[in-house]
């Protein structure tokens, strides 16, 4: 095999060794340890922000999404939600719990199992000026309706020369859950992220979930909100500001969940939490400070924040749970070549889902997706510590 | 059927089909133990056969609704005044119904309206002929689907509805766009890819929108649930208006058409589904694509109405009946407009490999919707031959003038601010959009 075709990781190893990275002595480190003691899933910078805020409450992601839906249904009579089991059943994952009782069957609508049909219907209602929230029980089922999302929703504004907007929100759990095998475990960030005319967001924390979903419903364009089933039950602190009904998170702005100077880890959705744990491990074991960026928004992508971070840390790793090829991480790595090549001290790396239809057996499933240890180990290798 | 075992006879054909799909040798060796497994499959479909009209036997029969374009007749003398209404009798072969009382066979019209209908149909045809010429001159790019022969559908529907009702159709959309308020110049301008086209040169032949007109959709069948959504919005907003949803006989076999039927009936939506049956989905005849070619019965649990789509008065009467139906909150209806396209499926199709020239010639010469209405207008002395000639000339010269204006329109300047406009609603765009390489990125706040 020619040298050029060898994986970049091996090139790194072959290159001359550099001076090891100096252990961090930033004050941030101490704070983040305190944060870890409380909850392994949220990062240092976040905790600091809330340290003296008295009104902070714990919210699960599910509650945050529910509150977002309730507030937007309350605020605008044009908003309604439809999908399978969203009303009487209270939502397959209980995200829409209580909404039927509160807003009635005109606004909270159980559909038959007919993805292509109800998605098309929701798009039609949006073209007519309503603001539907179209729930997919999981985004795996939205594949039956992807033509309606891509061709009918995303492209109509452009095809009509700007006279026919389509204000619609597609939402539902995306990516793998636990033990549900291949057909129910796919991550569609890259699929929808590649479509002009769509906006795509992927929340991690409760604040993300609420702020992004509310922004999606208010945005006049079609937006895909890619949630994660494994996050629904996770608790996060919600600031006083985020508890208000006017709280929205602007699209296209990533959030630095943990500041660092030695490595940039870019991630989205559930992998953000894993990356934060890995970052703490890196600090504990090797004394390095990894900066963890929560993308929040896949499209538009906050290239600026990523590049700024690379300019600071000179190393990039992207962590996501999608298939490796042509994915979100592939895109970010390509962008790092275009905008930050001269700032990189090592080849950028990615940790992704494996290229395999998700297996059922637990041990095999674990081998198919990023784990905290895997992220930590691969980052250590990248940093050569 | 290769296997004729006692098992297959007991089980009936549907279960037999399943058996044949399994390993043959396995069945031959042990036919009986499988019986229990398939007994459910064998029991299920039998009960359906007892409907009043047996559908399967009808699949291959000829169409009973006439396609005579001049089948209406007069019951009283035509009034002098252009705007005074008078009644016209429709042929009793204008409609066939499914689980539905037929619409009234008389329709009120005025002389002015008949002349307007005539003008509109001539204008649509002249516009399509202009498109045909421009395409052959290589001035129109890509796809171009013409509706020549089907004018009575687009024009008849428009004359039956209000501007607050909605229409959505597939890609054979020029006539609808014109009737919904588009101008000839904006439609031809769009075909020519001009900046002043109806979609500013971004949509082309298949994508035209205007108030109450939702395209112009290029994915066969996908517009049907979208149209159900338009009806849903009418119901949600309690407007008492209807959504007219058009699709071809080819599209009628798409699964999502049936998904839309189901929801429309379930939720009692004011949706007037309408199959424009021009007998061919591209080059595949209805009988070669559809197990049941009675498209008006395809709604199963939705009342159906088959209409002579070559007689504009029958179309108007049917759609008017439909909008009264939906306004009375009676839910959806499935219409079938029996029509014929003179040209090929699109400009690249000569339209002669899958049908005979004689068939086309016969339809053109005996069932033409424009000639049919013209005949009635002359017979009823609504207008004289000279007056009609004047209308012809008026329509022709109007189209000619508009085409000239369209041809003189500027093309969109090939610059980023135009290329990237309207991907997102103005003011809600991302900071920038990527061009072909990083240096081409377009920043919206420039």
Notes on the protein architecture:
The complex is a heterodimer of chains A (385) and B (446). Chain A has 385 residues and is an alpha/beta fold. Chain A has helices at residues 8-14, 27-38, 44-50, 61-75, 99-103, 115-127, 146-154, 156-159, 189-193, 206-218, 240-243, 270-286, 303-313, 328-340, 362-368, 372-383; strands at residues 57-60, 79-83, 108-110, 131-135, 169-173, 199-201, 223-227, 235-238, 255-258, 263-267, 290-294, 297-299, 316-319, 349-351. In chain A, helix 6 runs parallel beside helix 7. Chain A is globular and about 60 Å long. Chain A starts with 7 loop residues before the first helix and ends with a helix. The termini of chain B are far apart. The longest helix of chain B has 26 residues, at 111-136. Chain B has helices at 6-21, 24-29, 35-43, 55-58, 111-136, 151-158, 174-179, 184-191, 223-237, 255-266, 286-289, 312-327, 357-366, 369-379, 385-408, 416-419; strands at residues 73-74, 85-89, 95-98, 106-110, 166-169, 213-216, 243-248, 271-277, 280-281, 284-285, 304-308, 333-338, 432-433, 442-443. Chain B is built from 16 helices and 14 strands. Chain B has 446 residues and is of the alpha/beta class. Mean pLDDT of chain B is 88; it is low at 1-63. The interface between A and B is large, with 46 and 52 residues.
Return the structural class of chain B.
Answer: alpha/beta
Which structural class fits the helix and strand makeup of chain A? alpha/beta
What does the oligomeric state look like here?
heterodimer
Number of strands of chain B: 14
Major beta sheet, strand line-up of chain B: 3-11-12-8-7-5-6
**Biggest β-sheet of chain B, characterized?**
7 strands, mixed
Strand content of chain B: 5-15%
- Percent helix of chain A, as a range, is 40-55%
Tell me the distance between the termini of chain B.
71 Å
Any idea what the radius of gyration of chain A is? Answer: 21 Å
């Amino acid at each position: 095999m020619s040298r050029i075709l060898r994986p970049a990781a091996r090139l790194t190893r072959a290159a001359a060794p550099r001076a090891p990275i100096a252990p961090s002595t930033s004050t941030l480190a101490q704070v983040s340890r305190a944060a870890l003691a409380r909850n392994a899933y949220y990062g240092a910078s976040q905790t600091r922000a809330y340290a003296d805020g008295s009104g902070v409450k714990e919210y699960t992601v599910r509650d945050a999404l529910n509150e977002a839906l309730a507030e937007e249904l309350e605020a605008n009579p044009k908003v309604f939600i439809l999908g399978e089991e969203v009303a009487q059943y209270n939502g397959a994952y209980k995200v829409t719990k209580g909404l039927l009782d509160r807003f009635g069957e005109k606004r909270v609508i159980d559909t038959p199992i007919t993805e292509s049909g109800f998605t098309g219907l929701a798009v039609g209602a949006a073209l007519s000026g309503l603001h539907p929230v179209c729930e997919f029980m999981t985004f795996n089922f939205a594949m039956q309706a992807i033509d309606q999302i891509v061709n009918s929703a995303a492209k109509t504004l452009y095809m009509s020369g700007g006279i026919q907007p389509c204000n619609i929100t597609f939402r539902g759990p995306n990516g793998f859950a636990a033990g549900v095998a291949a057909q129910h475990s796919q991550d569609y960030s890259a699929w929808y992220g590649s479509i002009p005319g769509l906006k795509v967001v992927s929340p991690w924390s409760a604040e993300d979930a609420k702020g992004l979903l509310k922004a999606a419903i208010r945005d006049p364009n079609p937006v895909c909100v890619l949630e994660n089933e494994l996050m629904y039950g996770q608790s996060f602190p919600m600031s006083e500001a985020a508890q208000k009904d006017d709280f929205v998170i602007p699209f296209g702005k990533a959030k630095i969940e943990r500041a660092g100077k030695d490595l940039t880890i870019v991630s989205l959705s559930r992998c953000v939490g894993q990356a934060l744990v890995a970052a703490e491990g890196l600090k504990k074991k090797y004394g390095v400070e990894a900066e963890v960026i929560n993308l929040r928004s896949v499209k538009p992508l906050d290239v600026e924040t990523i590049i700024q971070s690379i300019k600071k840390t000179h190393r990039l790793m992207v962590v996501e749970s999608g298939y490796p090829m042509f994915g979100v991480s592939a895109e970010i790595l390509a962008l790092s070549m275009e905008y930050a090549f001269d700032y990189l001290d090592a080849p950028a790396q990615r940790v992704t889902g494996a290229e395999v239809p998700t297996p059922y057996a637990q041990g095999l499933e674990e081998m198919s997706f990023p784990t905290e240890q895997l992220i930590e180990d691969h980052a250590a290798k990248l940093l050569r510590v | 059927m290769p296997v004729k075992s006692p098992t297959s006879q007991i089980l009936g054909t549907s279960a037999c089909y399943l058996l044949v799909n399994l390993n043959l040798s396995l069945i031959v060796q042990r036919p009986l133990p499988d019986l229990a497994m398939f007994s459910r499959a064998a029991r299920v479909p039998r009960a359906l056969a007892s409907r009043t009209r047996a559908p399967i036997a009808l699949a291959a029969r000829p169409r009973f609704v006439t396609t005579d374009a001049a089948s209406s007749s007069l019951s009283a003398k035509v009034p002098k005044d252009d705007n005074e209404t008078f009644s016209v009798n429709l042929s009793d072969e204008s409609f066939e119904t499914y689980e539905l009382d037929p619409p009234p066979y008389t329709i009120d019209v005025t002389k002015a309206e008949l002349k307007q209908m005539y003008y509109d149909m001539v204008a649509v045809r002249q516009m399509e002929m202009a498109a045909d010429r421009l395409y052959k001159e290589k001035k129109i790019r890509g796809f171009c689907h013409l509706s020549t022969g089907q004018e009575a559908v687009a024009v008849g529907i428009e004359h039956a509805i209000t501007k607050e009702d909605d229409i959505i159709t597939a890609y054979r959309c020029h006539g609808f766009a014109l009737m919904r308020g588009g101008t000839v110049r904006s439609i031809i301008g769009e075909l020519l890819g001009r900046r002043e086209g109806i979609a500013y040169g971004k949509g082309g032949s298949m994508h035209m929108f205007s108030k109450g007109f939702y395209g112009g959709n290029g994915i066969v069948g996908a517009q049907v649930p979208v149209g159900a959504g338009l009806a849903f919005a009418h119901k949600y907003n309690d407007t008492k208006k209807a959504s007219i949803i058009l699709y071809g006989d080819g599209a009628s076999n798409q699964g999502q058409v049936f998904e839309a039927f189901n929801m429309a009936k379930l939720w009692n939506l004011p949706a007037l589904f309408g199959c424009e049956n021009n007998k061919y989905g591209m080059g595949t005849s209805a009988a070669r694509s559809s197990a049941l070619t009675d498209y008006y019965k395809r709604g199963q649990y939705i009342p159906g109405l088959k209409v002579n789509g070559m007689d504009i008065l029958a179309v108007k009467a049917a759609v008017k009946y439909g909008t009264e139906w939906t306004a009375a909150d009676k839910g959806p209806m499935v219409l079938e407009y029996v029509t014929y396209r003179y040209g090929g499926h699109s400009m690249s199709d000569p339209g002669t490999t899958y049908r005979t020239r004689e068939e086309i010639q016969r339809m053109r010469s005996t069932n033409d919707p424009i000639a049919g209405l013209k005949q009635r207008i002359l017979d009823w002395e609504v207008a004289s031959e000279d007056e009609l000639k004047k209308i012809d000339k008026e329509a022709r010269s109007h189209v000619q003038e508009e085409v000239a204006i369209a041809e003189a329109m500027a093309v969109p300047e090939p610059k980023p601010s135009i290329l990237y406009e309207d991907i997102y609603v103005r003011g809600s765009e991302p900071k920038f959009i990527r061009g072909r390489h990083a240096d081409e990125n377009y920043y919206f706040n420039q």
